[in-house]
Amino acid sequence: MDDKYLQYLKPLAAVAIIIFMGWYFLDIVAYILAAIFFSLIGSPLVKQLDKIRFGRVQMPHSLSAGITLLTMVTGVGLFLVLIVPLIVSQANVIASIDIDGMNKYFQESMAGFYKFLVQYNVVDPQASFSEYLKSQLSGVVDLAQFTNFFSSLVSGTGSVLMGLFIVLFLTFYFLLDNDLAKRSILIITPEKHVENVEKVLHDSKFLLVRYFHGILIEVGIMMTLEATGLLIFGIPNAILIGFIGGLMNVIPYLGPLIGGIIGVVLASLSVIGVGDYDSILYTIITVIGVFAASNMVDNFVLQPQIYSRSVKAHPVEIFLAIIIGGKISGIAGMILAVPTYTVIKVIARQFMQRMKLIKYLTSKM
Asked: Does residue 130 form part of some domain?
């Protein structure tokens, strides 16, 4: 075969092999990516700890890495200690809902709505509204669902613990050896491209660290804003709802909507659980108002700082990247869209800088 064709086939074959191996060992790739993510989050703290001196003795680098990993694990542990009891409390409230009492309270006011459902064949016309409402609510508060959930959780504990150990192990060594992943990539890079790949890795790391730190700050601020707002207005289980609402902001665009819906459902069920049916409308309006106000702050203050400045991309670029990511891989694709697009831009700037489009897109990087 002509050498002219071989020079194109070799890189294509290499990419195909890498894609296949990544798919075949998807779980291992996920562990490595998670470890790289946590190491990027913790690397600034390692650098700060390395500067500490005890007299003439400098802080050992291995100790800096260990303290950083312990700090991250402690932070996650404290979140779990705070959140898990709130989840259990919410489950108990849902399980204690008086279905018969709620059915009696809403039977008259919802009769018109039920007729609408019957008219459009949404429900069986032979069933009474009382039976329909009871069946729907029974599905929501069925303790068997919680039992099945926890049974699945317990059955998967072994694999979860193994995955957690692998991620922590890899994270520690990525923190300990800051260039471990970089050297691994450079080893398989052709010699003529080493300099360019090294530049790509350096710039990608710089931008991704800023982006991930920005996302963590955004999530923390949103949790605080939403939980504080709900507490001020006396919404039950405000901390759990604020935590979930803030956490959903890792999903661009759809996250606030999903968080708001979950917040409304949890708050409404909490009010219903104590039999305070007259407060349901107030609760729903308050949760929607708090989430809407918080997301105004997010849209006009936080996101421009995170997306535009950390990854140096125009909002339209970010929007299109997220839409494409969602089209390719749903929610996971939307979450990974911005960091993936950032890396692609860095690679394109380094290897295709003569193209006008690439020059334009990367002019601010």
From this structure: no
Instruction: Give me the phi and psi of 51, to 5 degrees please.
Output: -80, -15
Q: Please, what is the angle between helix 180-187 and helix 157-176, to 10°?
A: 90
* Domain count across the chain: 1
Helix (H, G, I), strand (E, B) or coil at 83: helix
Residue 359: give the domain boundaries. 188-365
In a domain, 121, yes or no: no
Q: What is the pLDDT along the chain (365 residues), one digit of tens a residue?
A: 455 555 556 556 666 776 777 677 778 888 888 888 888 889 889 989 988 888 778 888 889 999 999 999 998 888 888 888 888 888 777 777 776 676 676 666 666 666 666 666 656 665 555 565 556 555 555 544 544 555 555 555 567 778 888 889 999 988 888 777 777 777 777 777 788 888 888 888 888 888 888 888 889 999 999 999 999 999 988 999 999 999 998 888 788 899 999 999 889 888 888 777 788 889 999 999 999 999 998 888 787 777 766 777 777 788 888 888 888 888 888 888 888 888 888 877 777 666 656 665 565 65
CA–CA distance, 231 with 72 (Å, rounded to integer)? 28
Q: Which residues pair with residue 58 across a beta bridge?
A: 53
Quick check: is 131 in a domain? no
Residue at 138 is within a domain = no
316 neighbors 308 (Cβ within 8 angstroms): no
Handedness of CA 65, 69, 75, 81 (dihedral sign): negative
Q: For the chain, first and last CA: distance in Å? A: 41
Phi and psi for 57 in degrees, rounded to 5? -95, 125
CA distance 205 to 339: 10
Rounded to whole angstroms, how far apart are CA atoms 365 and 361?
8
